[in-house]
Amino acid sequence: MVTKKRAILANKKQNKNKRQKKVTKKKEIKNTFLQNFWYNRMSLNNSLFFWGLSSVIVIALFLGAISLFAAQEVDIVVNVNTPETPSGGGGGTGTPIVNPVVPPSVSPPLVSPGTQTPGSGATTQPTPSTPGAQTPTDDEKPSGGEVPIPDIIKKIQAYFEAYEAKDIEIKNQEKLMGDDVFDSKLALGDVLFDLKEGEIVKNSLFSLISFLTSILAFYGIYFFYNSRKYLGYVFNSKNGERIANAKIELRSFNDKRIMQTVITNKKGKFWFKLKDIKTGNYYISVTKLDYVFPSKYWMKKENIEQSIYFGDKIKISRNKFRKLKIPLDPLIR
Questions:
Q1: With contact defined as beta carbons under 8 Å apart, do 253 and 283 qualify?
Q2: What does the alpha-carbon distance between residue 285 and residue 63 come to, in Å, rounded to a whole number?
Q3: Taking the chain, what is the end-to-end CA distance rounded to the nearest angstrom?
Q4: Where are the beta strands (DSSP E) in 108-182?
Q5: Half-sphere exposure of residue 152: CA atoms within 13 angstroms, side-chain side
Q6: Which residues cross the membrane (predicted)?
Q7: Within a domain: residue 126?
Q8: CB contact at 8 A, 308 and 298
Q9: Is 264 within the bounds of a domain?
Q10: What confidence tens digit (pLDDT) does each residue in 209-258 have?
């Protein structure tokens, strides 16, 4: 009877230990996830960081050069041959100026032979009637007709395909004759147009701010990474395998107060933020399910290297700390 009760109590105790192990394991997994998120996921090596930073700077300089090139105001003058001014005909004035807005086409009024134009003393001479009222096509346009501004812009776009019509502005406008602004010999004067500043120039300030923000972000990650000091790793004393998810506590040697707590990554490594630690004496405690610290197996060895740690007092400062190799003995079931 007594033996049966002892067996029941032992069974209950065993089940209780199993439940405690499951709870402890869940807590370790949760702590490991949080620690890996903030520490191990950001553990970039210096070379990778500087390569990435250099690439960002080179790309930013390249985009900046393109911005400066696009920001330059480009004035292009197209010289065309000036035709001879036809003689005669009612005392004509100088070359008229074409307004930027394209006027609607208006048919000229018919003037009867022998009538007098208001405001002048001269009598208009009869002109021969022109046959046909059809609108000529592009191929049939007379060379002496006035070229509308939209057609001029289309001709400019043919030479500068990267610019849209809204990016071209006619600055010096003369009366333009002929079908092709660039090639016609029946055009009057010069065509001066300006390629407007692109949208990238308007947003150059925002681009600069974004670039500086990205640089600061990279430096923030770098300084955060450097604020953590690699202190060592934890391994199995029997086979030398690295131990992940081990809980490392840095405690004050005098009052046993916990200063920092970290979790080893999948390679068994751990870090501390030494900038938050005052110079003084400390010790490290290690906790891992199914393992024992300090290692009694390694204590029996001879010629133990100095980096092997068994829980003794260590001196830590911001700039000086010896890297540790912490062995743990596995429990034998």
A1: yes
A2: 52
A3: 28
A4: 168-172
A5: 27
A6: 205-225
A7: no
A8: yes
A9: no
A10: 666 666 666 655 555 555 456 678 999 988 889 999 999 998 998 888 88
CA distance 276 to 285: 19
The number of beta carbons lying within 10 Å of the beta carbon of residue 138 is 7
193: nearest Cα among 162, 157, 143: 157
Residues 6+ away with beta carbon under 8 Å from 312: 283
Give alpha helix (H) positions in the chain.
2-38, 46-71, 149-159, 199-202, 204-227, 296-299
Q: How far apart, in whole angstroms, are the C-alpha atoms of residue 232 and residue 264?
A: 10
| ∠ Cα 41 46 51 (to 5°) | 100
pLDDT tens track for 39-80: 444 444 445 566 666 677 777 777 666 655 554 444 444 443
Overall domain count for the chain:
1
* Residues of the domain holding 191: 74-83+136-196
DSSP 174-205: ---BSS-TTT-SS--SEEEEEEPPPHHHHTHH
In this structure, is residue 156 part of a structural domain? yes
Token duo for residue 37: 């998120």
* 62: helix, strand or coil: helix
CB 126 within 8 Å of CB 206: no
Burial class from Cβ neighbours inside 10 Å (0-12, 13-18, 19+) for residue 327 reads buried
Both tokens of 166, joined, read 């809204």
Q: Are the C-beta atoms of 187 and 150 separated by less than 8 Å?
A: no
What is the total residue count of the chain? Answer: 333
Paired tokens of 281: 């004496």
- Retrieve residue 21's tokens: 């192990």
Cα 126 to the center of its chain, rounded Å: 73
Is 120 within the bounds of a domain? no
